[in-house]
From TrEMBL:
<dbReference type="InterPro" id="IPR025991">
    <property type="entry name" value="Chemoreceptor_zinc-bind_dom"/>
</dbReference>
<feature type="domain" description="GGDEF">
    <location>
        <begin position="161"/>
        <end position="289"/>
    </location>
</feature>
<dbReference type="InterPro" id="IPR029787">
    <property type="entry name" value="Nucleotide_cyclase"/>
</dbReference>
<dbReference type="InterPro" id="IPR000160">
    <property type="entry name" value="GGDEF_dom"/>
</dbReference>
<protein>
    <submittedName>
        <fullName>Diguanylate cyclase</fullName>
    </submittedName>
</protein>
<dbReference type="Pfam" id="PF00990">
    <property type="entry name" value="GGDEF"/>
</dbReference>
<dbReference type="Pfam" id="PF13682">
    <property type="entry name" value="CZB"/>
</dbReference>
<dbReference type="InterPro" id="IPR043128">
    <property type="entry name" value="Rev_trsase/Diguanyl_cyclase"/>
</dbReference>
Amino acid sequence: MINVSADELASIIKQIDAALAHHEAWREVLHRVLICRLPAPASEMGSAPHEHCEFGRWLYSPANAHLRALPAFRTIEALHAGMHAKAHALYELRLGGHVVSLEAFDAYAQVAEAFRDEMAALRARVRYTLDNLDPLTGVFIQRRLIGELESALQRLRDAGEPCGLLLFEVDLKAINHSRGLGAGDAVLCAAIGQVREALASRDRIFRLVAAQFLVCLPGRSVDDVNALARDIRERIRVAVAGTLDDERQTAAIRHAAMALQAGVPVQAQLDEALGRLAVASDREMPASA
């Protein structure tokens, strides 16, 4: 799972809105320069102008290096750089006293439109994701789960791709009682942050109820799920002690591991997994194929 928090998603939406507004004004300046023969903005005549606009400064800041690694942002980065490069070429033609050809303007207009469309599509995807996240932990909410499992089951039937399921629950009753609900929430957020770091980009975490979660693991076997479960249990224990600054403080952790089966309805398999979790103790529970 890509470790992008709900706050980051909200920030991305804000930046997309600002970028679309900024580049609309930027486009108007370009048109005025071409039509009214005004001086070109100095910011567009230097090297790498796409890095110096408001959106470019945000995109290329060190804090957003992880976002630039995502496919959607790589596409937007290329379109944004191309749009500024095409605009730079138009400014150069205009300042050199040359006529801007229809072909040159259309080349700019096409990439500018593609940039706007891609930004709008990304905003819609981010908004959809944000609307389907648990506000406390930043993982997906339960109503997304059945659709995710149905898709995984279809891939299993069509292509034979396995899908592991890991259910786990962190018992926060003792912490909530001794430290308060705020401490319990802080522990849960820290624990899920640790879990997210252990997952791949295709993996998805869903919050079921309270401190009960399910991890959908495409391409993973039962053995893979068990190995991950051991790692996650240790990560959660470290998060509990670290958040409360007390090595003696622990929380019971229960888990159940299994793999999707092609011939069994999703809901039946989910009910089985929940049943296994309900009877699990604070130990490693054998996996079910």
